[in-house]
Every structure is written in C-alpha cells, then in structure tokens.
Design brief:
Blueprint lengths: L34 E10 L10 E8 L10 E2 L12 E9 L4 E9 L7 E9 L4 E10 L3 E4 L1 E2 L1
Antiparallel strand pairs: 1-4, 1-6, 2-3, 2-5, 5-8, 6-7, 7-9
C-alpha cells in the first residue's frame, strides 16, 4: 500500500468533467454503447469513530479511456456520507474503462473529528467489479493508492 504521495493544495484546483450522483436514475452522459454507468461503493470501516465529514475525491487509471491525470471525481451528495460501517454509493457515466489498474483517494480533512477509517472502494461497471483495499486511517490531507484485490 502506497503512502500519501503529495499535497494537492499546491496544485491546480481539483476538477471533474463528470457528474457523480447518488441515484442511478440521475446519471447523465451520452446515450451511446461505448459509454457505461459505473458505481463507486465506498465502505467506511467498522472501528470506533471511523466516520468523517471530510471531503473525498477519487481518480483511477485503467487499461482504456482512463481519467486524465488531474481529473478527480468528488464523492458527495445530500446524504451523510462516510459514517461508521456504512457503504456509500455514487454513480457516473464514462467511456468503457476496461480493467481498472489503480485507484487513488484524495482526502481533505475538515471540521471536528475528520479522521476516517477507509476500508474498501469498489468500482463496478456491471461487467467488471474491482475492489481496492485501504484498511487504514486517513488523518492528513493527501493522496493514497489502494491495493487492488
């Protein structure tokens, strides 16, 4: 498992060309067979005080049509996300990504009790489901790479 690589605060602001939603019916994007709907499932660990109110983004590299370096998907909606032993689901539409090789989390703590115990993140296209294990506390701002299962 890689350590935090660098701070993002010194880079350009995080951007995303993709709308992430919390409901499958709200997914936007072209109606074309080359595009797939993806589900991101984030499991917060089952340890005391595991939840957080921090800001969380993800990015990934794949065998085809990866997000460009610097493209991040913010995982946020109207729900109280990333709480103790909870699975939060987010959806987006993208060209077929093929095999997901790497998944990165950008963690930006804010507010009281912002530490977070991230267990796993799963990316599911309906055809291929890939899980990345983190199984660790995130305390400081930074980027962390998950271990592909």
């Amino acid at each position: 498992m890689a350590a935090f690589e660098k701070k993002l605060s010194s880079q350009a602001p995080l951007t995303s060309a993709f709308k992430v939603t919390s409901a499958l019916k709200e997914v936007e994007g072209p109606d074309d067979d080359a595009w797939k709907i993806y589900e991101i499932s984030v499991h917060t660990g089952d340890v005391p005080y595991a939840g957080t109110d921090a800001d969380v983004w993800v990015s990934f590299r794949s065998s085809a049509n990866s997000l460009r370096p610097g493209d991040w998907l913010q995982l946020d909606n109207t729900e109280d996300n990333f709480e103790h032993n909870k699975v939060d689901r987010f959806y987006f539409k993208h060209l077929d990504l093929g095999t997901i090789n790497q998944l990165f989390v950008y963690f930006y703590p804010r507010g009281n009790n912002s530490n977070w115990f991230l267990d796993t993140i799963t990316l599911d296209s309906g055809d291929v489901r890939t899980t990345f294990t983190f199984n660790r506390w995130l305390i400081d701002e930074g980027i962390l790479e998950g271990t592909r299962n």
